[in-house]
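Can anyone check this?
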Amino acid sequence: MKVKNLIFFFLLLLMGMSFGQQKKSNGDVLFFEYDYQGAIQEYLKEMRKTPLSNQQYLNLAESYFKVEDFSAAASTYMDLYKSEVDLSANQLNKLFQALNMNVGRDSTRSFFYNNSEIFSAELRENAQFNFDLLNSDVNPPSDIEIFNVTENSREADFAPSFYKDQLLFTSSRNRDPNLKNNANSPASFLNIYQANISTDGNLVGSGPASIIPEFKYHQGTPYYSEALDEVFYIRSNEQADELVYDSEGKNALAIGSVNKSGNFRLLFKDLSTSFYYPFYDDLSGKLYFAAEFEEGFGGTDIYYVYTNNGLIMSSPINLGPRVNTPGNEIAPYIFEGSLYFSSDIFYGFGGMDIYRSEIMEEGFFSIPVNLGEGLNSEKDDFGYIIRNYLEKGLLGYFSSNRNGGKGKDDLYGFVVKEKPGIKTFNIYGSVLNLATNNVIPGAEVRLLDLDGSVLKVIETDEKGAFRMEVPMQEGITVEATKARHSIFSDSYRGEALNQIQESAYNLGIVSIDDLVEETEDQTVLKLNKFYFDKGQSTITPAIATELDKVIDAVSRFPQMQLRIESHTDSRGGSATNFRISQSRADAIKNYLESNGVSSSNILYSIGYGEDKLLNDCTNGVFCLDTFHKKNERQLIVVLNYDLLF
């Protein structure tokens, strides 16, 4: 159909019931009556006589967009953009949509990157991810079987919902063939229908839904909650069996529900705001829906409210900028921890596309992933649902006005072995200082594939936190570092990739300054003081414990260059002390090298004997053992401290 999504479809159906105020020009009148082709002609006539106002130019661009003249829409929106006319987020999305349909995805992508600062960080990340996805070799499973269901009519059939062993859906088909179908007749209003699901997933025997009470105005987009045994749906605002309007002559759509006894209860009603696509999550008790509120991110956004067995218990909560965009988001549906919805954001195939986002902890969502060609087309694809289906795997349905259908919108079914859409790797957590357990802001976190190619790089925020998502790989290496810090690096394959996504994953690194101290005017590794047995150079367990800290430090800073120093006190002969100190220095070097430290890291191992005493306990001077012990020491000097990154 000619409209861009369900919202505009409703507006067109409501044309005959609007009482818009008189506008200043014929073009304005036709535009607000949704006669977009007529508005274009009138605006073009008016332009020959007097310049259009900025708002009228916006109306003209919108009209071109609605009649799918994307070349003219792109040109008009671009003229407004270059003239620095203040475009809303939704109008910017239409500019990019029109460019996408007119000049192609690559040119739109380039224009987006050159002007991306006007969008939120989440949208920029979403766009880059999906642009890369649609231009990559990573494809969703190809075993999906899509079919046009047999019960489609010549009118609009959309918004499917599972109802026990049947399917509910919305249709604009004539309720009564004996009634003339016009904008104000009962025959023209949307209604909810039901059909049986055959063993192959097709539909048979459609008719008005028996559970839905009779209502002579619009009612549609049903969702059946198995836990509550209720159907949630939308219907026209009415009072005393008559439609009610706001001050601008608009009849909006409310959300209600009906139980198995046929009792209807009204849940959401606002004279000026329409609500769309209710979805009740049986697990959380949240009621999701789409609506356009002033504080939203663009057009219609997806919201949820907390409920008590379906009764509203909170104000609407926006799902946030990871899901909601400057475009229109509708038709939320949750299956096995995945949120499915449709959006007309510009980086899709065109029109409304179906996306999947994983529901994370604390209200976070993963980057919405386009479900790919097949389920999506250059037209509108929306109203996606899916469930487990016997030995066949999964059965689902969606709506589309793609080419080749029977009516304005058609229902399509599909059978697939696993959830459609590519799998992604989503990791979140913090980078921590292992020495202090403090978070590290500004640390660099990298994801690499098996070949070592960098998949993504980000910096941790002011709380040391990070969150990253890339298409799933056979294996992924996670790295983290910061200037003058060690490098965290670990690789994962198979099931380990799934496990580290289940909870926060903290990456520990160490600052070089936490490992060293200044001693005797040089930088040395920070170790507890240790002693060899008298006259011996054997590495005892106590000494090994300290030397293992050296091994760990070198593993974290592979470029580290060391000098091993061994010093004795003045007791005994000088030659003996030189010999034993050298033997001890060599023993330390041998231990380190035998436990993984490369010989290239140890530039020197020197025994100084009693040459560098720290006090006056020289030969012939009586000193307590405590003072002699101060002279006996082993130092691991970091020669290139100032050069370590």
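Reply from J.R.: I decoded it. Residues 574-594 form the longest helix (21 residues).
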